TrEMBL record:
Gene source species: freshwater metagenome
Entry protein name: Unannotated protein
C-alpha cells in the first residue's frame, strides 16, 4: 500500500477502481466471468450428429401425426392429376382425319371436333361465320372452310369441307349419348386441342333454358368445344360453350345439324 492510502481522513475501504492492488478473490472472479462469457466451440462431427437426429425425429413425428386417410387421399389425388395431364389426344375410330383440329377466323382460334365425313363442330360464339374461316389439321395443312350449317338456336356451327350430306353419317350416331343428368357422363374423358378434361364433382343445378339443354361443370375450361370419348375412342358426345356456360349438345340437335342444308361460307 502507498503512504497516501494510510493517511486518508476517512478509513473506509477503497473501491476496486480507486486502489492499485487487487485481492486474490477479485482476480478469481474476473477469470471465472471470462470463462462463462465464451461458449466452448462445437465440433463438426457433433453438429452433424445433432442435425441428423433432429431430422429423423421430425420425420417420425410427422408420420405419426398425419392420419393415414389424409396420406392416401393426397397420393390418390396426385395420381389423378398425373393421369389427366399425360393422356394423349386420341383419334376418332374410322374418321378420315383426327378428332381435333383448329378453326381460325377473325375471333382467333378455337377447337373443332370431327364428326366424320369432313364435318367439324365448333362453338358458335367462338367464330364469325360472316368472315372467312380456316381449319388447320394435324398434318399442318390449312384448308379454308367452304360450307357451314348451324343449329336452330345458333349455339354450334358445323363446318363442312364438302356440300355432300351423307345419310350414313346420321345413322353413325346411334352410339351418341342422350343423358338426362351430368352423372351419366362422369366416366367419359373430355378432349379438346389442349388436352383432357373431366366433369367436376359438383355439377350445376342452374335452370335450363330449354328442356334438352344439359349444363356441365368441368374441372378446367374447355376451348369452345370438346368431345366426350369412350374406351374405343369413339365420339359419344359434344360439349360446347355458350352464354358463359358449358353445355352438352343434345343428340337431336346434332342430328338436326347434320340434316341442315349446307350454306356457302365467305371466301
Amino acid at each position: 500500500m502507498s503512504a497516501d492510502e494510510f493517511e486518508r481522513e476517512h478509513k473506509a475501504p477503497l473501491s476496486p477502481d480507486e486502489r492499485f492492488w487487487r485481492h486474490p478473490t477479485e482476480l478469481a472472479d474476473v477469470e471465472r466471468n471470462k470463462h462463462f462469457s465464451h461458449a466452448p466451440p462445437l465440433g463438426r462431427k457433433l453438429t452433424a450428429i445433432t442435425a441428423t437426429v433432429s431430422a429423423v425425429a421430425s420425420i417420425a413425428i410427422l408420420s405419426v401425426a398425419i392420419p393415414k386417410g389424409i396420406r392416401e387421399f393426397s397420393e390418390a389425388e396426385a395420381e389423378a392429376v398425373a393421369v389427366t395431364t399425360t393422356v394423349d389426344i386420341p383419334h376418332v375410330k374410322n374418321a378420315l382425319t383426327t378428332l381435333v383440329a383448329t378453326a381460325t377466323g377473325t375471333k382467333g382460334s378455337t377447337t373443332a371436333i370431327s364428326i366424320g365425313s369432313d364435318a367439324w363442330v365448333v362453338a358458335a360464339e367462338a367464330v364469325d361465320i360472316k368472315k372467312p374461316l380456316w381449319l388447320t389439321l394435324e398434318s399442318g395443312e390449312e384448308v379454308q372452310v367452304p360450307f357451314f350449317s348451324t343449329n336452330e338456336d345458333a349455339s354450334v356451327i358445323l363446318l363442312r369441307l364438302t356440300a355432300n350430306q351423307s345419310p350414313a353419317l346420321a345413322k353413325k350416331w346411334d352410339r351418341y349419348l342422350n343423358p338426362t343428368s351430368p352423372a351419366e357422363l362422369e366416366s367419359f374423358p373430355i378432349v379438346d386441342r389442349y388436352g383432357v378434361h373431366h366433369l367436376g364433382y359438383e355439377q350445376s343445378v342452374r335452370h335450363q333454358a330449354k328442356p334438352k339443354e344439359l349444363p356441365l361443370l368441368t374441372d378446367s375450361p374447355i376451348d369452345g368445344a370438346a368431345a366426350f370419348i369412350d374406351k374405343m375412342m369413339n365420339v359419344v358426345g359434344v360439349a360446347f360453350d355458350s352464354r358463359h356456360s358449358t353445355w352438352f349438345l343434345a343428340k337431336d340437335s346434332l342430328l338436326s345439324l347434320l340434316a341442315e342444308a349446307p350454306q356457302s361460307a365467305p371466301r
